[in-house]
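Researcher: I'm preparing a figure for a lab meeting and need a structural model of a single chain. I don't have an experimental structure, so a prediction will have to do for now. The sequence is pasted below. Please return the structure as tokens so I can convert it later.
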Amino acid sequence: MDLKEDIFFASHMEPSVNTLRLFVRRGKTSDIAEPLLIGNRNLGESYSITIDDNSPVIQIDFESYIGYSILNESFTVWDDYEEFKGKNFRVYTKSRYLDFISNGTIASEDHPGPFKHRFSLSNGYMITAPAKDRLEALKISNELIKNFEKKARKD
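Model: Understood. Here is the structure written out token by token.
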């Protein structure tokens, strides 16, 4: 699964033991170019991205995850060591996080069984989750995510 649109992390939850659910929103990129100004420098054309109540929400479920990490992308760096396929949604064959899981846990091909390191690059956040092969993604209604966000704010 890869999207051409920009995606934004909305929230996450663990609906049951050892299950991770992510909610991401699709952004809409403007067709109108604007100058990107930082201080007195013009860095060229840029296109604003809008997220509003009409932005689609995608729910992604990881069944039986081994571990997960959510990082602010401002604190990450490119690492040539890592190998992956995909853009917004990646599957890694080699990564520092996969090394951490392999060296720091008892996870293996035998237990819990074959697993993949999946990753979502969402504007502002990097979500990484080694999990068993099964992954489900579905588009959900904006009303459902609004109710979830209201409930999360109350808790």
